[in-house]
Amino acid sequence: MISKSVFGNVDFSDKISEALGSVQFPESPINLYQPIKYILSLAGKRIRPQLAILGADLFGHAKLEEVVPASVAIEYFHNFTLIHDDIMDKAPLRRGKETVHHKWNDDIAILSGDALLIKAYEQLAKCPAAFIPLLLTTFNRVALEVCEGQQMDMDFETTEEVSEDEYVNMIRLKTSVLLGGALEMGAIIAAAPSSERVKLYSFGENLGIAFQLQDDILDAFGDPATFGKQIGGDIIVNKKTILHILLKQELNSEDFEIFKSVLALSSSDSDLKIEQMKKLYEKYNVLNKANALKEHYTKRAYTNLEEIEVESQRKEELYNLADRLMHRAR
């Protein structure tokens, strides 16, 4: 993402990678710091730390070096959540590589995750002193909400009925608030007015909801050649995605019995399970309904961005990012 901005012609992703690579972790104890280096080496899209920089760039009153520590803090926090989430999900792979708890063990992963969270606060302390109280307030609010969202997600595994509103609120907390918070933290460092920060945060929050709804849709209907993981993975494990919820609330009594029988199929019958569930999705027009909901939150995000009172050309990178996220194949 090369941006013609107040920061000059800068590839923000490269700048973040450079900042992450320049951080020196102690060599000992090796089982505390090596897993941190490992998870940070599994480079994802770096969307969240880029948003912190874009949030500052939008208002144009900050130096890049003032924003980078907040950007790194966001990336540290995100990876801390990934380490702990993988333990809770018993996931063997992350970004195509072994998860930390699988490569080492649960105890090491828990402690390394904790250390990474502390390192995030260490980075925040490097931000301009005048903004640190407000940055901490925002960071702590978002961090706690992410924990609330993760708990709700786990609770849903054993909850019989999950409504559409409950699900959207869960993904808002688990996924979206961190996108909004990253943008807001960048705007804080750029000394943006509070009213404009609220609009920018809402843009990130609504975009994050649309992003997760898109992820649910791709899991069932994505192109296997480009999706990057097994199509129908959520169906196999009976995950209560938006597709599952929209379907269940529309089923007639006869199809509800079929639905229950599909849920009861084991992972050894995964192909049949996916096929039968997608037949129900098709019968009840679930894909179109899910896409309509995704578009609703996408439009809300664009409206939030439109309402921010800065020159339209300054919003170009955020529009481009939103467009890429909502038209991705994986």
List keywords for this structure.
mainly alpha, 16 helices, metal-binding, Isoprenoid_synthase_dom_sf, 330 residues, transferase, Polyprenyl_synt_CS, two-stranded antiparallel sheet, two-stranded antiparallel ribbon, single chain, globular
Molecular structure report:
The chain is mainly alpha-helical and about 325 residues long. Helix content is about 70%, strand content about 5%. Strands 1-2 form a two-stranded antiparallel ribbon. Helix 2 crosses helix 6, helix 4 runs antiparallel to helix 6 (about 105-125) and helix 4 packs parallel to helix 7 (about 130-155). The chain is globular and about 65 Å long. The two termini are about 20 Å apart.
| Bulk shape | globular
Could you tell me the radius of gyration in angstroms? 21 Å
Can you write the helix and strand succession as a string?
EEHHHHEEHHHHHHHHHHHH
Distance between the termini: 18 Å
Give a quick account of the main beta sheet: strands, pairing sense, barrel closure: 2 strands, antiparallel
Assembly category: single chain
Based on helices, strands and strand pairing, what is the structural class?
Answer: mainly alpha
Tally the helices: 16
Look at the structure and give the mean pLDDT: 91
What is the strand tally?
A: 4
Strand content: under 5%
Q: How much helicity do the residues have?
A: over 70%
Give, in spatial order, the strands making up the sheet with the most strands: 1-2
Q: Unreliable runs, pLDDT <50, ≥5 residues?
A: none
